């Protein structure tokens, strides 16, 4: 047996012996046994599992539930908890943390492990009472003035995944971590990973919070409903996540009508049995909701993703066909609603979105004399905008109540959207009227995203830098901004300006072998903007399938 294999087997055995989870310990033991017996596939799998470790970054940790340092499991989570605990002790003289979890497999176990390790180091540790939405955790962090927080969730990832989302409170404002905190925490985790997790001090001397923290979130969120409630026939799905309970309580507190529930999807189930991917953006995810809406003659559909930090909305067209609204549409409708309220209340503030979201938000801000901020992608940046009035990103994330939380919040967004509907009903108007008025006032905008499965994200980005496209369809490329050269907002993003004021933004995914292309167009009418978008999207796909960029699969 060669030295490399012996070293691999030794590392795997040392990992397995400290793993408290019978399932992953048995999984790893089987791999070790097959590898020792000469099974080439087992050796390959084992080597992949121990080739580095799941990297901790500004999104925390997220990966497949499996044994070894390249997966989400109790050993990796214990190491992360120990590293974060060390960071918090340096960060705050009297450190405290609040921990939440969703309904995914092992979420509760990972949260309890984290609580025991945090308490074992003397940190004042608080655990949410049960599986709850991510926004409740973000609310609790600020409400309890904790030093930090952890939410165990993989949001809308496939069932096989889980994750570990980290926030910092107090002087950091209560949002997700950003640089350099991510690097500092990662360094502490690396130190913790050098030891054996069985030697970490643990304690059950932590507080399980009561329902009062949930009730406070509900009370404060219900205040977003300002219009007199009107009758409304609508459908809601939680996509097998944890959103239903808190949303229904908030609707009741706001005296808003309750929705018809997609019964098959409204209770937490980490197997997500009725959807291929529990992401409301995915084709087919809302099929059951649409079937119920058709059956009941509903006016609209609301959907949360599994940890309820995102909101999707679907509406029927004149022919009765249901369509999911693009995140930019929902974001702009809510932003316009927020701007109108701010003017009526003589308030100022900032409207903010990520740079890959629609440029229409800048028009709204200018029209209402509000400040406008464009951030790097990710709510961790949007949430840090000063004097924030409303923020959103095109991937169905909205921050309608920044005084309450500093992260995207699908429950608050649902209440804000229903408040918009009620304001319109009070005026005898519909959402179709609102859309027409938006176009008349700000112009028509259309957006699309093309995702390319890439064998090498860096190589494709480098190819686009070296050989930028001279045109896209009939539209010349008139400019290119490379944010790797921008010292203020350095990021691996390319922004191409097209003739006519349209644009293309390109960035690699941080978690998948995928490069994302964002197209934004505008025109005098929705039809004109949509036609330009269709033409540009067709041209982009043809360009990427060509030889210049390595015949990408898009």
UniProtKB/TrEMBL annotation:
It comes from the Bacteria. Residues 54-193, 217-320, 327-441 form the Alpha-D-phosphohexomutase alpha/beta/alpha domain. Keywords: Isomerase, Magnesium, Metal-binding, Phosphoprotein. One of its GO terms (molecular function) is magnesium ion binding. Its cofactor is Mg(2+). Pfam families: PGM_PMM_I (PF02878), PGM_PMM_II (PF02879), PGM_PMM_III (PF02880), PGM_PMM_IV (PF00408). This is Phospho-sugar mutase. The keyword Isomerase applies. The lineage of its organism: Bacteria, Pseudomonadati, Pseudomonadota, Betaproteobacteria, Neisseriales.
């Amino acid at each position: 047996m060669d030295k490399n294999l012996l070293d691999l087997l030794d590392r795997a055995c040392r990992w397995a012996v400290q793993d408290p989870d019978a399932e992953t310990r048995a999984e790893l033991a089987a791999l070790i046994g097959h590898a020792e017996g000469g099974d080439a596939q087992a050796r390959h799998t084992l080597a992949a599992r121990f080739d580095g470790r799941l990297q901790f970054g500004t999104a925390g940790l997220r990966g497949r539930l499996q044994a070894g340092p390249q997966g989400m499991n109790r050993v990796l989570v214990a190491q992360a908890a120990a590293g974060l605990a060390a960071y918090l002790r340096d960060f705050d003289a009297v450190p405290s943390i609040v921990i939440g979890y969703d309904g995914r497999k092992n979420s509760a176990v990972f949260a309890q492990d984290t609580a025991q390790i945090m308490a074992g180091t003397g940190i004042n540790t608080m655990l949410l009472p049960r599986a709850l939405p991510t926004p409740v955790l973000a609310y609790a962090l600020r409400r309890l003035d904790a030093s930090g927080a952890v939410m165990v969730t993989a949001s809308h990832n496939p069932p096989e995944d889980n994750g570990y989302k980290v926030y910092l409170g107090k002087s950091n404002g209560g949002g997700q971590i950003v640089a350099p905190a991510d690097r500092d925490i990662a360094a502490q985790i690396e130190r913790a990973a050098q030891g054996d997790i069985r030697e970490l001090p643990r304690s059950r001397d932590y507080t399980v919070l009561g329902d009062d923290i949930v009730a406070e979130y509900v009370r404060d969120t219900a205040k977003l409903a300002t219009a007199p409630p009107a009758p409304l026939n609508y459908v809601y799905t939680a996509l097998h996540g944890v959103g239903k309970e808190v949303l229904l309580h908030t609707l009741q507190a706001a005296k808003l009508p309750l929705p018809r529930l997609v019964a098959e999807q409204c209770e937490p189930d980490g197997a997500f049995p009725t959807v291929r991917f529990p992401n409301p953006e995915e084709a087919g995810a809302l099929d059951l909701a649409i079937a119920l809406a058709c059956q009941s003659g509903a006016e609209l559909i609301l959907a949360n993703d599994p940890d309820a930090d995102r909101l999707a909305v679907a509406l029927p067209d004149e022919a009765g066909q249901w369509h999911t609204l693009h995140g930019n549409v929902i974001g702009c409708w809510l932003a316009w609603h927020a701007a109108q309220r701010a003017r009526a209340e003589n308030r100022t503030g900032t409207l903010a979105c990520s740079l890959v979201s629609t440029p229409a938000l800048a028009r709204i801000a200018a029209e209402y004399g509000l400040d406008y901020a464009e951030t790097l992608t990710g709510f961790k940046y949007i949430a840090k905008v000063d004097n924030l009035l409303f923020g959103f990103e095109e991937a169905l994330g909205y921050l309608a109540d920044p005084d309450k939380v500093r992260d995207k919040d699908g429950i608050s967004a649902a209440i804000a959207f229903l408040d918009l509907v009620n304001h319109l009903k009070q005026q005898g108007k519909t959402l179709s009227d609102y859309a027409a008025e938006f176009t008349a006032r700000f112009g028509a905008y259309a957006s699309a995203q093309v995702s390319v499965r890439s064998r090498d994200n860096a190589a494709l980005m480098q190819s686009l830098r070296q050989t930028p496209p001279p045109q896209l369809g009939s539209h010349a490329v008139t400019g290119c901004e490379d944010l790797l050269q921008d010292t203020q907002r350095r990021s691996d993003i390319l922004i191409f300006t097209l003739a006519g004021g349209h644009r293309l933004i390109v960035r690699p995914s941080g978690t998948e072998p995928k490069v994302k292309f964002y197209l934004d167009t505008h025109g005098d009418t929705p039809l004109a903007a949509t036609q330009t978008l269709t033409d540009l999207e067709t041209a982009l796909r043809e360009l990427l399938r060509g030889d210049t960029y390595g015949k990408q699969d898009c």
